[in-house]
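fyi for ur records
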Amino acid sequence: MAVSVISYNSENTTEHKNATITQASALKDCVVWLDVTNPSENDIKELRKAYGFHQLALDDCTHEVQRPKIDLYAGYFFLVLRHIYLQEHRVHTKQLSVFVGKNYLVSVHKDDFVFLDSVRHLIHEGGHRVSKCGPDYLLYLISDRIVDNYFVVLDSVEDEIDKIEKLVLKKPDKTALGHVFRIKRELLLMVKPIWPTREVFHTLQSGSLDMVSSESIPYFRDIYDHLINTIDLIETYRELVAASLESYLSMISNALNEVVKVLTVLTTLFMIPTLIASIYGMNFHYMPEIDWDMGFYFSLALMILSMVLTYLYFAYKRWV
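which gave:
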């Protein structure tokens, strides 16, 4: 468990080292950012006691399977966001839970979020807009970094789709098919949290929340627009992946058709010679050319001639 407490206003910024959750809740005349990493049961109890957060919201903080949402409570609102990132060329997500009140923002998460350090840096350097605004603008800064990273992940996915399209056309095998389904799963993994995230920011930019100032609404509207663009990109990439899958199936079908075509041609070439051999192989005593000394060579020549004529006919029809 790690607790980080930063308080700031238009005049100064203070980082309260070794401060407890209770001490953070007692800070006045400033905006307080309390960041709790990997909270224990005692931390959850202390949050409930110090801030009066609803137990259901605190339960959502500890169960990292929540879909993005926003819940309104008396004096504060609670929202869940999902950070999407790449690890070993695979898409992963992790949860960030946020409480926003009149003069505080409490963020709760299990794992470290590197992008939060850039927000802390903005607060510490002074002179930035955040020092003159409330916790709603701080929420914007955090959310903006989460949403911007969606585009970083999508750029990587786009590169993977380009490679897959080339691989499918060059060598449509099981490896290519595995890559197609992997990208398809990753796009689904992305779109599942992004759709409800759009609804969260639709609420934040609607102007219906008392704790979101009119000055911050355009910033949340900007994030909302980014989310719409992200969804459009994902839908485009899903269509490209579907097209790659169709190309793969078409290539496999064409390859199978070529095999069937070769087998059909070979079967047809040997069909007439087989008929001739079957006729002359019948064990009747009286048959034309049965006692002819050139009968074997005649039948062999007839077989070869039938194969050549059949092949020439196929070539004329452009079947071979």
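The domain at 2-252 is CATH 3.30.460.20 (Beta Polymerase; domain 2). thats all i got for now
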